[in-house]
Design a protein that fits this description.
about 475 residues; alpha+beta; Beta Polymerase, domain 2; 3 domains; 6-stranded mixed sheet; two-stranded antiparallel sheet; about 50% helix; about 10% strand; elongated
Amino acid sequence: MTMIKKYFNEAFQQYEGWQQMLDSNDMLRTAVELLRKLEQIEPNSENLIVGGAVRDLLLGHQPHDVDIATNINVDKISQHFKTADIGKSKDFGIVDVPYGDYRYEVANFRQESGYSDSRHPDKVEMVKSFEQDAKRRDLTVNALGIDKNGVIHDYVGGIDDLTNKVIRTVGRPFERFAEDSLRLLRVGRFATKLGFKIDPETKQAIIALKDTILNVAPERVRDELFKVAGISGSALADYIEHLDETGLLKILLPELHEMKHGDYPHQAIHHPEGNVFQHVLSALRTSKSTDAITNLAIMAHDLGKLVTKGANEEGNVTYRGHEDAGKEVFEKIADRLKFSNDERDSVLFAIEYHMQGHRFPEMKKSKIISIRQHKNWPVLKDVLHADQAARGPDFKHKDWVKDMDYVEDVFKTFGEKDAFEKKMATFVDGRKVMELRPELKGSQIGVVKNAAREYIIQRDFNVSPEEIKEFIKRYEIV
């Protein structure tokens, strides 16, 4: 992290290395060109790059998304640039401006008031300065601006909070959260993403207002969860703990709350890392993936243990069939948070097959092929690894690699699904079975066909059409 205090001892200071940053980041350099163009439209106007891009600069990161704020009316901007109005954003003083090879959100400085739906302001008033605009933003670290010359504009103490690694609301936290209850979740996301602590007053306000999260549309909650899961598995683990500390986990993900606060132990011989909840967090912390679905699947893979707790003859806790039961538990989460069908299917596939990582060496090749050829295999593979790596020192990495190499060897023999099925059809399909065994009816045809397929797979396609014809003719249905 850049030593911010080295560069900033006052609210307004020149960002050292500004020109070098512009030379290394084409999006940022083009944004500065746009700032200069805006000044040409209205010479005495104030035009700044704002928000996350400034925060990232001060943290020593390359910005990947650049927003601009101005006191030039967006209607006037639209007279000079080709602009797009996303939804009804222009009603709030926001337009999308294509410039160079990029698109920039350009927004008027504004004040907002009256949030009757805990999301949208009832009244938006355009203002003349960034100082006024900054005071209506959510977090101090996101309320910074930088001008074309690299001078930082900080009216809310964002530089100090970046230096001290603190996430704090702009102004009074109760007011900021009343304006948009989603900010209850955004605080935790930024604290997790940046590795910062949360200001105590801000955290207490989250706890006090936790129930207002129910005012937020499920889709917005889902999007926030996906953003955290897209950082890393470890970030999602930290976020889950934050949600629990503030009371939000019980409201939004009661299944995980029950997993933590209920009685779901593990046998130490299988899971030295601890109980089911501790196992899930440990599995997440082994994940280096930045794919949100992968990390959410790791989070969900043992949900079935909530409803399958039992005991064996020795009195040890068991969770038999939890992989199948977990699908039904996750379906409730997916319905509640409005997962898309593809998102839902990816997680369900991982839940259903996450126990197979222990069984590949003994598994039929046909089963390995069906799993490996599936479009969601990459998600499942990461879940399988996390599930086993969660055991820490007891995880046998060499055995894991050996098992995965075996799966890949089988896959190389048979290939992708389309090519595999095309080759298989040259030996057997339903029509060929009916031609050779006209006495068979209904499901009997499928039984013989599947038996022939299994025979072919076990021999790695090293068979002849005549051999398979004879197999079909002689196969006896039990």
